[in-house]
Design brief:
Pfam families: WH_KIN17. The termini are far apart. The chain contains 6 helices and 3 strands. The protein folds into 2 domains: 98 residues, Arc Repressor Mutant, subunit A, CATH 1.10.10.2030; 45 residues, no CATH class. The protein is mainly alpha-helical. A hairpin with a 2-residue loop joins strand 2 and strand 3. Strands 1-3-2 form a 3-stranded antiparallel beta sheet. The relative contact order is 0.10.
Length: 156
């Protein structure tokens, strides 16, 4: 066998092309993987643990059981703890740190409520008791935009 029969992955032409693309716009690539990781992780929460308080490591271990999963080291989060805190900050999960580790509970958002709060926000009529407004303003804006686009497309 010759010395080139077993090239290391970093030497392959494919790997060189991928590194060139990453070098041109690293944030776009990482953001894409982060979004996909988050969506798949939350989909698993919705399906398997919709109304349960569960250890974050349990959900993560179920997630990585799928051989086609997005690896966390491809995302913006270096650790599961960072990701858990992100889910809590954005209001997608209720997050609790306990002596036994981090526990998460999926938050079921009702689209009508999110849209209502979005409209109230737009007209600066946010009710005073809303502690973490909309839990995620980003989510609400996307939800509202998607609903409007859906109706425009459907009835146009």
């Amino acid at each position: 066998m010759g010395k080139n029969d077993f090239l290391t992955p970093s030497m392959s032409e494919s790997h060189q092309r991928q590194m060139q693309v990453l070098g041109q716009n690293p944030n776009r690539i990482i953001d894409g993987y982060s979004e996909e990781f988050e969506n798949e992780f939350l989909d698993m929460m919705k399906r398997s643990h919709r109304f349960s308080r569960v250890a974050a490591t349990v959900v993560y271990n179920e997630y990585i059981h799928d051989r086609h999963h997005i690896h966390m080291n491809s995302t913006q989060w270096a650790t599961l703890t960072e990701f858990d805190k992100y889910l809590g900050r954005t209001g997608k999960c209720k997050v609790e740190e306990t002596p036994k580790g981090w526990f998460i509970t999926y938050i079921v958002l009702f689209y009508g409520y999110v849209i209502l709060l979005s409209l109230l926000y737009l007209f600066e009529e946010v009710p005073c008791g809303v502690s973490v407004f909309l839990l995620s303003l980003n989510f609400a804006a996307n939800c509202l935009k998607n609903k409007i686009l859906f109706f425009l497309y459907r009835f146009a």
